[in-house]
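Example 5.3 — DUF1207 domain-containing protein
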Amino acid sequence: MKHCLLFISLFLALNLQAQYTWMGKRQTNSSIVLDPSEIQMFGTIATVLNQPINEYQYIPFAFGASKSIVSKLIDNNRTWEMVAEFGVFTQFEWTTIDGKQQRNLLNADYKAAFSYVRKQAFSTFRVRFFHVSTHLGDDYIFRNALESHTFNNRNYEQIDFTYYRNLRPNWRVYAGLGSVVRPNIKRRPLSYQIGSQREFLKEKKQFALSCGINLQGFQETSFTPNVKTAFGVAYIQEDNEEPIRLLLEFYSGHLPYSQKEKETIDWLGIGLYFYI
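Solution (predicted structure tokens):
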């Protein structure tokens, strides 16, 4: 009896191991590199177009990573996985005040997400739940002499659905809809997102031209499109589906970070983007 139970336990363990992979490598790709709040690694040095270039630079950067919790390969064209992500988005300004250069911390956003991602042939579907919160930086608080709580409605939870379609091996389009789910928050809930990302890759080459565009709108800001577009070079990695990108980028729209999101900004900059 003991030998029978041992055999059954071993068989079940091997069978589960064959069907599911726990805490392994990512099996799907749900990246949106030009989403300003995408959980990834990036850093940008930008000039704000209504500011003198020699007096003011805007520097957003992020530390973020994703990890597959569990995945299952159904067949060669179908797989699904559960993914956890966490990222910190920080924004600095490099400015001249009273003839002296200052590098001031403006804000930090924190984002944690859990996703179900399913790949089927040339299509990928993602259902994601995330929490985001935003916190003004010490330098901003001190410089503006803030002594009390300020209204902040960028502290919420959201569920969204995104559909990706691979038109070619290195060309993807996507569209998504989302809604805030935290009750009793003074924030209009709906949002949308559409975009495209493409690498012009020649066979057996490690470098490619990269370009893309991302449009997002939030009911909180009357669905006004926030546009980010970029062009540059990509270094193709053998062990990562997403390349390392060095991009010349342009953003126009509402501020994508902090509780000051109803303010608008236009920036032109150079950014480095990659995933871990």
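Remark. The first strand starts at residue 21 and ends at 22.
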